[in-house]
Design brief:
Blueprint lengths: L20 E4 L4 E4 L2 E2 H7 L2 H10 L5 H13 L5 H9 L6 H15 L9 H26 L13 H10 L7 H17 L6 H10 L5 H13 L6 H14 L4 H9 L20 H15 L6 H13 L3 H5 L7 H11 L6 H21 L25
Antiparallel strand pairs: 1-2, 2-3
This protein binds carboxymethyl coenzyme *A.
The site of carboxymethyl coenzyme *A has 20 residues, from loops.
Length: 389
């Protein structure tokens, strides 16, 4: 009740109180449950961070072992679910299939859909975290015409995801070990980001007491858009376009600055960060480390570095406080690992899953939570008559 104010994109509206993630966009600070992202990136693992984000505290070694074992024990997909994935068109976008598969988990695990039952919610939490990498790898293998692989629960979460995706991963070569660590780090950096579009979507859907699966499936669809998680794919496509036009960074930036062109510099800008995105700093360092190992210099990474340097020296970008965001450098790493661009946003979803779950669970226990129901300012016709005058 009270005065309704217009706030497009909810830029100034706090819809909830939350204890999960702290962001100071002016200072470029990001913390999960109070821990700076840089410390978690340096010392932690994705499973540890997932537990932290969802349960509020870092796990002790016994809790981490149990969590990891539960996830590994539930990684396999039932035959009916594999058959369903195999029936989807092979050339569909993996994000469309991922959202669909997550939604159908409410059908395959119908005894875990009640948001009022804590045990069911805990079970759904484990099932989602355990199966999302298996689903993602299955979708990828189908898209490249290779038989999907079963999980191997003797391997770690991230290592097994890369093995199910690429098959040949031995875990023994130095590059493989670096890729496993890089993937783990990228997942940590994506684990939560407070009320971003997909997480807000998960909360809105969950506020009607829809199931965790239905809410997360909606989150996957929100993430798919190019202004959100789809930006990592869009960045790579942009870099390829610039490369194919002879690497002319200046004329691309001129096009971006011309509002008529409706072209944005993908991977730049953020609703909250008006400074360098701290995740982007970490990812840029990681990209340099990985691409240094390659025999040939990476043309797209070089292009991205040049694009960043030029943009950050240009008043168009500095006046508007547009800096590289999380998506600017992640794609070049995924590409070096061998992922096609269509899988990039799926990787973002794997990372963001603990955040979606944590927010849905926090809202579920929040006594102040109400069904999400924004207001509007009506600008249509005043009353008119069907029968005319
Ligand atoms: N390239 C060129 N101009 C831009 C860009 C960009 N990437 N981002 C914002 N601007 C301009 C915009 O045109 C506007 O200019 P003016 O004031 O002259 O009209 C001004 O900066 C403010 O932009 P806005 O659209 O009001 O900002 P927003 O907070 O609504 O949008 C954003 C945030 C992330 C959607 C936007 O910056 C964008 O479209 N970036 C490119 C897509 C991208 O990289 N998305 C990933 C976001 S981070 C991770 C994630 O969510 O997945």
């Amino acid at each position: 009740t009270g005065k309704v104010t217009l706030d497009p994109g909810f830029a100034n509206t706090a819809a909830c109180q939350s204890k999960i993630t702290y962001i100071d966009g002016e200072a470029g600070i990001l913390r999960y449950r109070g821990y700076p992202i840089e410390e978690l990136a340096a010392h932690s693992s994705f499973l540890e961070v997932s537990y932290l984000v969802i349960h509020g505290e870092l796990p002790d070694s016994g809790q981490l072992k149990e969590f990891s074992e539960q996830l590994r024990a539930n990684a396999a997909l039932p035959a009916e679910m594999r058959a369903m994935l195999d029936a989807f068109p092979r050339d569909a976008h993996p994000m469309t299939l991922l959202a669909s598969a997550v939604n159908t988990m409410a059908a395959f695990y119908a005894d875990t859909v009640d948001p009022k039952d804590s045990e069911q919610v805990d079970r759904a939490t484990i099932l989602l975290l355990a199966k999302l990498p298996t689903i993602a790898a299955h979708i990828y293998r189908n898209s490249v015409g290779q038989p999907p692989l079963e999980p191997d629960d003797s391997l770690g979460y991230v290592e097994d995801f890369l093995r199910m995706t690429f098959g040949g991963l031995s875990g023994e070569s130095e590059l493989d070990a670096l890729f496993v660590r890089a993937m783990d780090l990228l997942l940590i950096l994506h684990a939560d980001h407070e009320q971003n579009c997909s997480t807000a979507t998960v909360r809105v859907v969950g506020s009607s007491q829809a199931s965790l699966y239905g809410s997360v499936s909606a989150g996957v669809n929100a993430l798919f858009g190019p202004l959100h998680g789809g930006a990592n794919q869009a960045v790579l496509e942009m870099l390829e376009e610039i490369r194919d036009l002879g690497g002319d960074v200046d004329s691309y930036l001129a096009k971006v600055k011309d509002k008529e062109s409706k072209t944005r510099l993908m991977g730049f800008g953020h609703r909250v960060y008006k400074n360098y995105d701290p995740r982007s700093k970490e990812i840029k360092g990681l990209a340099a480390q990985i691409l240094d190992r390659q025999a040939e210099p990476d043309e797209l990474f070089e292009l991205a570095l040049r694009l960043e340097a030029k943009a950050l020296a240009d008043p168009y970008f500095t006046d508007r406080k547009l800096y590289p965001n999380v998506d600017f450098y992640s794609g070049v790493i995924y590409r070096a690992m061998g992922f096609p661009t269509s899988m990039f946003t799926v990787l973002f979803a794997l990372g963001r899953l603990p955040g979606w779950i944590a927010h849905w669970r926090e809202q579920r226990l929040d006594p102040a939570a109400r069904i999400a129901r924004p207001r509007q300012l009506y600008t249509g016709h005043a009353k008119r008559s069907y029968s005319g005058s």
